[in-house]
Design a protein that fits this description.
- By secondary structure, the chain is α/β, with parallel strands linked by helices.
- It has 14 helices and 13 strands.
- The protein is 44% helix and 17% strand.
- The chain has a seven-stranded mixed β-sheet with strand order 8-9-7-10-11-13-12, with helices on both faces.
- A hairpin with a 2-residue loop joins β8 and β9.
């Protein structure tokens, strides 16, 4: 455990509000070597010799020995705290004025205002968690649905770190054998690292790295919402469908053709996953300049979508089907037959050639919407999320995994060409270093850390 000795950690004791203002209770967090001493100097009771992990009721006192507020003080001693340092939390009444006064009093007594993410950065630098886990803290705070929450929690618990640690240990073991061969370079016939075993292991590790990298697309969808475009001709009921899905009159509904002239977006959660619905302008030939701009945006949004709801109110021609299918070759396409008043004998089906799904609904009478939601979730083809699920949601991790894959490809090519162990070793060391960037084993730059933590909220 590194505590107070890391040159990247500020020696200042920091403080910040750790809760949103406006609640009944506000919590102020203090961390650093003088945290207990500073709080003791403004508290009505001495806590200098207090036992760790204890609560203390008393008053925060101003310079004139007047009471600012009655509070509860929580105390932790290094290294058994969130940051790995001595830490104190003051629970006050939630008044903005009271919180401001307590923070002002702490700064008067010697605290510095914490920077965004500084508590979690200190937790990383003090060895309380690795870098990928600290990033999971920010994702957990920002999670807006069950799926993004589960992914962040899994990463925070270290499942991703554990996978990377296993891969790095395997690479380190083989690399050490290759470097041992260099010590016996006079004996060219000696091979401590079995080349067949090395090739198999490199292939296996590369497969795991590639699988993790490929999960990034799914991770981004689960984290940010899966885009679903609603397309079709004018007046087929696209806006009515959007309002039914959102349970709100979000889009204007009218019998007049071309009412929707801009893209309308909103999201709902289906089985704990956010789906971002995009109601687009009806596609038709028009001389109206503004409507034409809306149609152009429709085509642009169509390219971004993962799922497309093609709404029709009459049987489309084979030419129309072929055109839409061509535009949606890399997407899940659902043909939504709207304005069907009798759904008693209709069920979601696949088209005859299995190129798209079909479902009948009535947006006007709110019939079949639940079945449509179930079908949307089904075609999203999402993995089952458990506590042990590892899916990449962070662009920095994706970039590192992509570079690790490229490095492993060079290892495989070098072995295929029967190159010497020292050349193979260099690429292996590159891979080990790249994987280490994700968990923080290779990161020592204050600038790098600043770029990671600057998006955190103050108080975390």
């Amino acid at each position: 455990m590194q505590t107070y000795n890391n040159p990247l950690i500020s020696t200042e004791t920091i403080c910040a509000l750790a809760t949103q203002p406006g609640g009944a209770i506000g919590v102020i967090r203090i961390s650093g070597s003088k945290a207990i001493e500073i709080v003791d100097s403004i508290f009505s009771k001495s806590i200098l010799n207090a036992t760790a992990n204890t609560l203390h009721y008393g008053e925060i006192i101003d310079k004139d020995q007047q009471t600012i507020d009655e509070v509860v003080v929580s105390l932790w001693r290094a290294p058994h705290s969130y940051t790995g340092e001595d830490a104190v939390e003051i629970s006050c009444h939630g008044s903005a004025y009271i919180l401001e006064q307590v923070l002002h009093r702490l700064i008067e007594a010697g605290c510095q205002q914490a920077k965004p993410g500084e508590y979690t950065q200190r937790a990383y630098l003090n060895g309380k968690m690795d870098l990928s886990q600290t990033e999971a803290v920010a994702d957990l705070i920002a999670s807006t649905n069950k799926a993004s929450y589960k992914l962040a929690l899994s990463q925070l618990k270290g499942h991703f770190s554990s996978e990377l640690s296993t891969l790095r240990e395997q690479l380190l073991k083989i690399n050490s054998l290759l470097e041992l061969e260099l010590d016996f370079s006079d004996h060219e016939e000696l091979e401590f690292a079995d080349r067949t075993e090395l090739k198999e292991l490199a292939n296996e590790i590369d497969s795991k790295v590639t699988t993790l990298a490929r999960s990034f697309k799914t991770g981004q969808a689960l984290k940010n919402g899966i885009p679903v475009a609603i397309i079709g001709k004018t007046n087929v009921g696209k806006s009515t469908l959007l309002n039914r899905l959102l349970r709100d009159n979000r889009a204007i509904v009218s019998d007049i053709h071309g009412t929707t002239r801009d893209v309308i977006e909103d999201s709902i959660s289906i089985n704990g996953v956010d789906f971002l619905f995009i109601d687009t302008a009806g596609i038709r030939k028009t001389t109206d300049y503004v409507e034409q701009l809306g149609i152009e945006r429709t085509l642009a949004e169509l390219q971004k979508a993962q799922i497309v709801l093609w709404v029709v109110d009459q049987e489309p021609t084979e030419a129309e089907k072929e055109e839409i299918i061509t535009q949606c070759t890399d997407k899940q396409l659902i043909l939504v037959r709207n304005k069907v008043d009798d759904l008693s004998e209709t069920t979601p089906t696949l088209s005859e050639n299995q190129t798209f799904h079909e479902i009948a609904i009535s947006g006007k009478y709110n019939l079949g919407i639940d079945r449509l939601e179930s079908l949307i979730y089904k075609v999203a083809d999402l993995p089952e999320l458990t506590e042990n699920t590892t899916i990449i949601t962070n662009a920095r991790h994706y970039d590192a995994l992509t570079r690790a894959h490229a490095s492993l490809l060079r290892v495989q090519e070098a072995m295929a060409m029967n190159l010497s162990g020292d050349l193979i070793s260099e690429d292996l060391k590159d891979t080990i270093a790249i994987l280490g960037e994700i968990t923080g084993n290779q990161i020592t730059s204050q600038e790098t850390l600043h770029n990671i933590f600057k998006h955190f909220c103050i108080g975390k």
